[in-house]
Amino acid sequence: MNYEGKIKPGHAADAELSTVDAIGHPLVEAEEQDRRGRRRIWIIVAVVLAAVVGIWFLLHKGGSDAGSAPAAQIPVVSVTVPGRSTVAGEITATGSLAARRAMPVGSVGEGGEVREVRVEPGDWVSQGQVLAVIDRSVQAQAAASQAAQVEVAAADARIAQTNLDRGLKLVDRGFISKADIDRLTATRDAANARVQVARATLAQLRAQNARLNIVAPAAGLVLERNVELGQVVSGGSGVLFRLAKGGEMELLANLSEDDLAKLSVGVEAKVTPVGSGRSFTGQVWQISPVIDATNRQGTARIALSYDPALRPGGFASAVIESGAVVAPMLPESAIQNDSKGSFVYVVDADGRAHRRPVRTGLVTANGITVTSGLNGTEKVVLRAGGFLNDGDKVKTRLVAAGK
């Protein structure tokens, strides 16, 4: 059949559309497939989103039904009932070790050349023991000369006494007058006085010679030696030896004004020198009556018995007893702080957390004591207090005190 004969003039556009439709039928079919593909993609995305929402809902629902959704939002907090504990008060301090009674020893005599040094640092000495020998050759001769002068004076005194005795026998016979007896008596008395002066001078020289040697003023431990053989020493030579009386040591513990006010003489302290790994028991024997105006600190002196590990000048720490208190104790995590001060959260019988201001006291390894604000019977939030607000509803999980 000849279709071209049916196309009339003036209908060229319709003929073209018919021709496009007939030729473009495969194009229409491709567009339909594209639309179906896009619908399939949107369906898959919707299913995936629905699955994600469902999983999220199941995870946050926690296995509860729809009616309990508000309860699932209530946080669970750990609480404890602290009770009241007896806590031994402790004050921690640091300071330097020193000899409790340091004895500086120098030359107290005329001085001279050192001929012998008999002790070394670390030696124990007794009272009066010679630490160093000073040359005394010149002083010894002076003492010998004075001893001879004593003999001369004694001889003169004996002659004067003999003359007086003779005069007393002659005065009765009238050969001499009483005035002569008076002169003989004065001569005898003067001679005896010269004997006493000579003997005193001799004793003085001998005492000076004895002071030439440097001796220990008391028993103790030699800490320093600042003199060598052949050195010339005198009264201005300074400290030649330094001793610790009885070997006793002490810790000069630096403490604040508040801590000093809590101490009393006689309380026990544990002192640990740096590097020794050992602790030594001592007692506070003196508390400084003066506070340093620059750092607001004072000194507590802790007496210690001798031990080789206690070296003067070394650094040490001390834990000093300061009495006992009875109060609730909480871990540091339970106590919050802000501009208004310290506070805790207490859970009431209705399960609501309330802010409670408190005052803290002693800080120990086991926790912090609460001196006011709690009586020990409350349920106190242990952790997560920083995420709570006053009046929040909470679920509690009781934890034993001290855990």
TrEMBL record:
Q: May I ask which residue range the UniProt record assigns to the signal sequence?
A: none
Q: Which InterPro entries match?
A: Beta-barrel_RND_2, BSH_CzcB-like, RND_pump_MFP, YknX-like_C
Q: Which UniProt keywords apply?
A: Coiled coil, Membrane, Transmembrane, Transmembrane helix
The record ties this protein, via SUPFAM superfamilies, to: HlyD-like secretion proteins
Membrane-spanning residues:
41-59
UniProt domain CusB-like beta-barrel: residue ranges: 253-321
Task: Tell me where in this chain the YknX-like C-terminal permuted SH3-like domain is found.
Answer: 330-395
Domain CzcB-like barrel-sandwich hybrid span(s) in chain numbering: 112-238
**What are the coiled-coil residue ranges?**
181-215
For whether the record's keyword set contains Transferase, the answer is: no
Question: What protein family is recorded?
Answer: Belongs to the membrane fusion protein (MFP) (TC 8.A.1) family.
Protein name in UniProt: Efflux RND transporter periplasmic adaptor subunit
